[in-house]
Amino acid sequence: MYTSHTPHKIAVTGGIGSGKSVVSRLLRMMGVPVYDCDAEAKRLMNNSPEIRAALVKAIGADVYGADGCINRPYLASYMFGNPEHVTIVNHIVHPAVRAHFNQWAMCAHAPIVAVETAILYESGMDADVDSVLLVQAPLDLRIRRAMLRDGSDEQSIRRRIGAQMSDEELLKKATYVILNDDSASLIAQTRRVLALVAENSAQ
Known about the structure:
This protein is 54% helix and 12% strand. The protein has helices at 20-29, 37-47, 49-59, 72-79, 83-106, 139-150, 154-163, 167-173, 186-202; strands at 8-13, 34-36, 112-116, 131-136, 176-179. The chain has two domains: 1-33 and 111-203, 3-Layer(aba) Sandwich (Rossmann fold); 39-107, no CATH class. It has nine helices and five strands. The protein is an alpha/beta fold. It has a five-stranded parallel beta sheet, with helices on both faces.
């Protein structure tokens, strides 16, 4: 039975359409608990009294709807095209998500845990993990995947990709890399990364 209170924390990151979620699903199938930052951030924004109080103070009561849940269209309009407003919201949400992840990791009772996040460095969560797994794919393939998944046009996908940290920057910071180009086996690559993580953690 695993009893250590210090699991190895690995971040799964990559750009739009790279396949982070696919690799995260494989990790779960291989017995690694995975924290979904996007899903947990949405849940915390709805359920955390601290986040609610801070957002209402910063933005106003209309940031929550009559159902008590975050008013996403209102929040999106507040943030859209206004970097200062984006910073205000991020400074409220990101620390709360990071704290929740670290608490979750300590309670996961597993030697290795993972966190899926598209904004690892922007959120500061890179300080909370021990290694980084970058999922990469060719740009054209990423665009096609994102268009099929989101029903968006190519131009809007390219704009979103342009707003993210580049693969070149991410690659410089990565500990491990998985290439998701529909040629090499994702299962084999994921197993290899887990073996390396286990080997390095044991040293």
